[in-house]
Design brief:
Largest sheet: none
Structural class: mainly alpha
Distance between the termini: 33 Å
Helix content: 10-25%
Low-confidence stretches: none
Order of helices and strands: HH
Number of strands: 0
Radius of gyration: 15 Å
Oligomer: single chain
Mean pLDDT: 78
Shape: globular
Length: 82
């Protein structure tokens, strides 16, 4: 079922670049919720806490997420359980 997302071409149709490519993962929310989410991702062995940027004020998010040609964005939104 991979590659069946709306607007995403099959893997054989994707342009291949020799340059190193990155995905940008954003967590936007209240500071406590952002820090808790990063801690949960660390405990799942998804990422290291020290690899995240410093906390950015919302006004700097646009600059930090400058788009490259051809990039798409998907957003996952879930409620925080306390």
């Amino acid at each position: 079922m991979a590659n069946k997302f709306i607007g995403q071409p099959p893997s054989g149709d994707r342009p291949v670049s020799a340059a190193r490519r990155f995905v940008k993962i954003l967590i936007i929310g209240q500071p406590e919720d952002v820090e808790n989410t990063i801690a949960r991702l660390y405990h799942c062995s998804f990422c290291r806490v020290e690899d995240w940027s410093r906390p950015l004020p919302y006004v700097q998010i646009q600059e930090a997420t400058a788009r490259e040609p051809g990039e798409i964005m998907r957003i996952y939104k879930r409620s925080m359980t306390r």
